[in-house]
Amino acid sequence: MQEIVFDVINTRYNSGKPFIITTNLTIEEIKKPAELSNARIYDRILERCTPIEANGASRRRIKAANDYYETQKKLGLI
Questions:
Q1: Burial class (CB in 10 A: 0-12, 13-18, 19+), 26
Q2: 8-state DSSP, 24
Q3: In this structure, are residues 13 and 44 in contact, taking their beta carbons and an 8 Å threshold?
Q4: In angstroms, rounded to a whole number, what is the distance separating the alpha carbons of residues 73 and 71?
Q5: What is the value of pTM for the model shown?
Q6: Kind plus residue range of the DSSP H or E element containing 7
Q7: I need a labelling partner for 6 at 20 to 30 A (CA). Which of 14, 18, 25, 52 fits?
Q8: Which burial class, exposed, middle or buried, applies to 32 when counting CB atoms under 10 A from its CB (0-12, 13-18, 19+)?
Q9: 39-56 pLDDT per residue, tens
Q10: How many CB atoms lie within 10 A of CB 23?
Q11: Rounded to whole angstroms, what are the CA distances from 53 to 38, 50, 62?
Q12: Among 10, 22, 76, which residue's Cα sits nearest to residue 47?
């Protein structure tokens, strides 16, 4: 799977076209990967991308909490 990810990133990198990547990794994890095998992927990403950190509540968790509440309400449990 890692080779497939590398091929996608490398193809885009070599084409010179822009790309957008989202990840749950911190910038420190990208700059200093725990596994050396990820370094060649991360190096290409860092060279082409400008990291932008987006902090905030997870929309999925908020929705799940709301759905849970609504289900409990409909069942008369609250």
A1: exposed
A2: S
A3: yes
A4: 5
A5: 0.66
A6: helix 2-15
A7: 52
A8: exposed
A9: 999 999 999 988 888 888
A10: 11
A11: 20, 10, 20
A12: 10
Considering only CA atoms, which of 5, 59, 54, 2 is closest in space to residue 25?
54
Amino acid occupying residue 66: N
Instruction: Give the DSSP letter string of 44-57.
Output: HHHHH---------
- Domain range for 49 is 2-74
Non-local (6+) Cβ contacts of 45 within 8 A are 9, 21, 30
What is the model's pLDDT at position 58?
87
Report which of 52, 34, 45 is spatially closest to residue 6, judged by C-alpha positions: 45
Tally of structural domains, the chain: 1
